[in-house]
Amino acid sequence: MTYPKIAISMGDPAGIGPEVILKALAKLENSRFQPVVIGSRAHLKETYKHLKIKGIKNLQDPERFEIHDFPITGKVILGRGNPSTGAASFGCLTIATELVLKGYCNSLVTAPIAKHLWLEAGHRYSGQTERLAELVGVPGASMLFTAKSPKNHWRLNTILATTHIPISQICKQLTEQLISTKLSTLLSFCRQFTPKPHLVVAGLNPHAGELNQLGKEEHEWLIPLLDQWQQEHPEVKLEGPLAPDTCWLGAGQAWAGENKGPDGYLALYHDQGLIPVKLLAFDMAVNVSLGLPFLRTSPDHGTGFGIASEGIARSTSMEAAIITAHELG
């Protein structure tokens, strides 16, 4: 039987990407997919050898999965990324995307990269999502984080209206069209799991503006927009804008197994959404790029340069990213 192929880009080779890939593939060895890792064959073998010497047993041997070799220029020192490792992670992502676009692979999983090293290598992007949008020719992709509670399998879904921009630019980026588009994208994703989702929108200002006392954006355009969107989608239970400091309380209770929480959250800026997601589901959440012609997932952590040589990186989020790509891709 031929199983679907999943492209897995190595990420920054000086980080924990290669380590968590080898650990995740060992744990998922009997799953019904074929991994295709895009990265340096020599570095993956060296990582395998390094981890074995440290006494780590549950690793997938690079000889046992397909590798599209991307040689690295210069020496890799674990924990010390440089422009060469940044260029390697950029090249791996590009080749992995091409493999999916050509139909060789069904979906894409990306290990973490260092944005500042991309910049030092001459690639000015705020993240992998933005590079992917350029490669596939779409005006923009949506960043959504999803995770299943180990207590009751309730799924936490949080989409971001804005992503990697300075906080001073958030209000300039937020528009009625953007919010409407992100809500519809969130709805489409959540409908994979429930036909009539319960969606929640976080406010922008403290206490969601508190009747114009702490900000006017909610009253001037966000509330009217949500009212109109609700009329167009009467089957959806829509709440918001809610005070950001209490918006995710229901998610916390649901994650602990106390009840069923909302099916999806819309956060208006990066840290507003990622703080609750990582507090509840760090190591279990998956970054999903929506709006591309294929499914892309990624672990919800960074390169881990500080622990890259120690062999202690947990592969839970990488495992979840691969499983999500397999199940939804």
TrEMBL record:
Keyword Ligase tagged: no
Keyword Metal-binding belongs to the record: yes
Assigned keywords, A-Z: Metal-binding, NAD, Oxidoreductase, Plastid
Gene Ontology terms for molecular function: metal ion binding; NAD binding; oxidoreductase activity
Pfam families (alphabetical): PdxA (PF04166)
Protein name: 4-hydroxythreonine-4-phosphate dehydrogenase
Organism, scientific name: Paulinella chromatophora
Top-level taxonomy: Eukaryota, Sar, Rhizaria, Cercozoa, Imbricatea
